[in-house]
Structures are given as C-alpha cells and as structure tokens.
C-alpha cells in the first residue's frame, strides 16, 4: 500500500483539482478579476511546492530503505556515499538555518541525530543514512537537481526515462523536464511578481504533469533501491554500460477498458495480463504479477484518472 508521502501527495492533488473547479478560480472569462488572479497564483505556488516535497520525501524514504538492506556502505554507488556523508553537511546546516523557531535543545537533537547517522556509515553494516542528502540544501529543487540525484543512482538520461514512463501511463506527451521547468517558472513568477496572472489552462495541465513526474520518479527510485537491495553487482559497479535505461523500469497498470478491468505490463499494452469485471480482483492479480518483477502498480479509477500507485 501507499506510504504516507504518497498518500499526502494524492490527497493534495485531489484537493488541487477540486480547487480548480471552484467558480472564483475557474472564472477565466474575467481575466481582470483580481481575486481570481490571486487564487490562481496561490495554486501555482502550492502545487509546485507539493511536488518538490514529494521528490524530497521520496529520496529520504529511499535512504531509509537502503539502510535496511544487507548491502554494505562500501558497496553503495560512490556518488550516494558522498551525498549521504560530507555533501549532506551543507544540507543539514541549511535545515538548521531555516528552523529558527526551534529551541536550542531541539536544534541540538536534530543535528546530533543526523551527525550520528553520518558517523554510522563507518560501520560495514548496521549503518543509518541521513534523509537530508537530496533536495534539502536550498529553498527549491531544480530540474538539474533531480537529474543529478538520479545520476547518483546510476540512471542514464533520467528525464528521458521519466518521460517514457509517463507516456506509457498516458497523462502527458511532452518531455517532463519541460513540464517541471515551466511549473518552476510559474511558481517563481506567482510568488515574486506582483502583476503575475497564472493562466487557468496551465493549472489544469499541471495536474497530469505533476502526477506523471511523481509516479515516474517514484518508479525509478524504487527500482534502484530494489537493485541495491539485491546487491546487484553489475548495477552497483557504476559501469556506464550497466546503468539503467528506459527498458529497466517495468510496471503494471490497472484500468477499465470497454466495461472490464484489465491489468497491463508497461512493455506490452496490447495484451492484458489479467481481466475481470471486479476491480479488486484484477488489482489483486496485478499485485502478484508486479511483486514477481519488483515492479510498481499504477491503478486508475472509473473515469480514467490515476487513483493510486505503489509497490506491492
């Protein structure tokens, strides 16, 4: 089932879609309406912030998952070793600087806890990893930050891989790197330019774009953690020829097609792997299939919108 950071993201964007349907926001025929403009600008800011939070939390959870595997610290990709040790120090320092409201004792607890995790990496096994290695060192997460983080996990052409996954899901057609950059620019303009007027259509399109980015980065990171858990030496070696590409991220989809619920493998959308009239039955069968591949499962609702996704 979905862990909390997925639930929070799904809940946020369900609320985001509901907000878009409200008359004060959707009054596109009145572009000069100051209240509508302010609301659309606000949605541009909180919508992008929600995606940033998801990305940061996904990497934090990944490090928790890695620390629970049998892999030794020395076996981890070198860039991950750097990210969770000396490169994480500046991120932790930044977190302290923005937590001015904390009491002295709370700041001490925070820094000592994270320092303990960094120090534990000197152990061959039984180490802990700080969750503040990626995305926590500055105010915003850029597209380049995402690319560099996934490069640390030995993913080649990360944004191209994510776009490929999103296109199979069917929510977007344009490159996700463009979608992310456009959303970032909208957020910045909405937050810092007094006369900004975020187009309603941009917000409508952003729902599918944000969900696509979240699912695709989740699938990619989850697969990489699985490779680490398996102590896949080819993957861990960092050999460029062994880096993960588009073909290395299988997942299953469950959707309703012509009155029947069907489960498809991402690499073969022409033939269903499971079919039935009851959604729960098909989801259960798809979970078994996905588990066998260490793959994610994306579940759609009756109307064709993504309802949930997770790693069974």
TrEMBL record:
One Pfam family from the record: HEPN_RiboL-PSP
Superkingdom per UniProt: Bacteria
RiboL-PSP-HEPN domain boundaries: 23-220
InterPro entries (alphabetical): HEPN_RiboL-PSP (IPR041519)
Name of the protein in its database record: RiboL-PSP-HEPN domain-containing protein
Lineage: Bacteria, Pseudomonadati, Pseudomonadota, Gammaproteobacteria, Oceanospirillales
